Amino acid sequence: MKTLVLGYGNRSRNDDGVGWFVIERLEELKLAGVELLASHQLEVDHAEIISRYDTVVFVDATIPQSPLPLARTVVKPRFRSHAVAHYLTPGDLLELAMTLFGRAPSAVLFTIRGQDFNFGTTLSPETERSAREAVCEISRLVLPLPEQAAPRSGREAAHA
After folding, report:
1. Separation between Cα atoms, residue 134 and residue 61, nearest integer Å
2. Domain boundaries in the chain?
3. CATH topology classification for 3-142
4. Does the CA dihedral 118-123-129-133 come out positive or negative?
């Protein structure tokens, strides 16, 4: 299974760069079979890239008023018209991949609540904590489960 993790945002706007932070932490883990990509924003060109994968995990910052510090949402292909001409959502990209290349991967979006979107390159403490939690969740999501070993006691092993 081919997996891509695509983190995006503006690295020069503190917490808006959280997608890049997550990609950098995932690079340190050297996850087998997982490709990583960081970008300033989602682009039409990404549709071709994501069409080559079975699964894509998107990572982005969200507004301070977001109810959860870290949220995980399944993304479905769906194109919407936007007031801002240079703006695409993960759903837009999936729809473009389907329309232009005949396939769209399964996808999940991790949004991490930002607190500080001023100019700078440092994450706020709360955003960094949530980003590190996202790294753990993404790692668990993209790594294949180890093959189950035969139970030593003869009883079936329970898995949560």
Report:
1. 11
2. 3-142
3. Rossmann fold (3.40.50)
4. positive
